Amino acid sequence: MSNSDSPPVPERTEQARVRIFDTTLRDGEQSPGISLNRQEKLEIAHQLARLGVDIIEAGFPITSPGDFEAVQAIAREVEGPVICGLARTSKQDVDAAWNAVRDSERPCIHTFISTSDIHIVHQLQTTREDVKGQARAAVAQAKQYLEDVEFSPMDATRAEVEFTAEVIQIALEEGATTINIPDTVGYTMPQEFTAFLGRLYELVPDLRDVVLSVHCHDDLGLAVANSFAGVLAGARQVECAVNGIGERAGNASLEEIVMLLRTRRADIDMDTGVNSTELARTSRLVSRLTGYQVQPNKAIVGRNAFAHESGIHQDGVLKERSTYEIMDATTVGLKSNSLVLGKHSGRHALRDALEEMGFQLDGQALNTAFKRFKEIADRKKQVTAMDLEALVTDELREEIPGYALEWFEVEASSRRPPHARVSVTLPEGGSAEGSFTGDGPIDAVFRAINAAASVEAQLDEFTIGAVTEGQDALGEVSVVVEIDGMSGAGQGVSTDIIDAAARAYVRALSVARARAVASADAVGLPEPAGP
Ligand code: KIV
Ligand code: ZN
Hints:
531 residues; alpha/beta; disordered N terminus; binds 3-methyl-2-oxobutanoic acid
């Protein structure tokens, strides 16, 4: 049995090292309703670098000017990990990926094409010969620009292994440095995946000279199990996303893969270079910025992942933690919520505390943060690291051009329907007021915002939570709205939950509007065939 309290980043031999390829900003961002702007993507990328991932797949540059710019900004600013851009096999895609990542110290292009007949016949409407030609051309083109080229045969697990092997052989001949095997639709099973990879090694002996990677989706809840099977079969790179977000049911969850390898490393002799104490914070940041809440019982980062409810378990843990805990919560960065500041703390103390948490704030940004901090500190006795983190994420985001809340008033009573009045600044300039009644005070505010903004937005999701424990905790609200079929997610943080909800709602409206504008601008761009 391995020791569960070992240090978070142990020394490993190169042979035992599994690379973490994070696709939160690419596959993760393809989750319905998620639309991160450049600033938010940069913030997540900096945190991923702090976490110690090996590769950041920063986006799919051909898909929109916004995605291109975000990948380019990450390539220019984020140091440490390899910065990778995704491309189909077309010349324009590979060029866009190269132009987006070329300023990184460690650039990479990831190109892909399907090898399953289902995709070749129905989606690509082409032939196997053509697929081979496209794979060869794309890898060769990418290799003219840079050394580090990853190739993926998409939908590999539903493809004929012999044909997939032929395409991989071609990619290797052209110089691909990583071969990634995707279970695109989350269909495979661990023992089947092991056999598939084993057969590929037999058919393509040169595969042993490059990095084999796996990319598993979670449609049957097997993404982590299949990725682990891949590692045991020889893969030394796992593609995964924070909180397991991604297309449909998502990707393999980064934190689960990392802690699986860390917790059982004595038995499997493999590990990653991730600093596990940053996992909880990374999860919170991604959840906040994407609006995708983490389920309470989610392994590793769920709020109950280390909570013990039954008396027998509590008794055991009080006597000896290892009776019912295989990991220590502090190794994933939970329970490190020590008091940071109080209402008498000044600007310097705030700046120092934020710096310690990895946020560099000066000038106007520091003034804004300080003003918001003072408001909170007046109402809350203790402002903790978790509160600061939520505030900074909430307050210092680059506002997407759109709507902004100016003020609201709500009358709530058990004797008549609640009534709200709001004032909202509008994207086209100026501001407008709206008033409405609703089923509850928050519903009234949302309807009043719709009236002020003159939109028919429908509320699809609403979640409310507390940043920390205790009666004076900050409230945190996430909403997803839909306007004319375009969805948008937004979050808000405040000591007042109506204020938090109103902030979240106007942000969600702005995101939906920005997405509608971007999709109108994208008309004429080559069709992005979603991986
Ligand atoms: O799921 C998939 O096949 C992908 C590829 C682009 C690797 O995301
Ligand atoms: Zn995928």
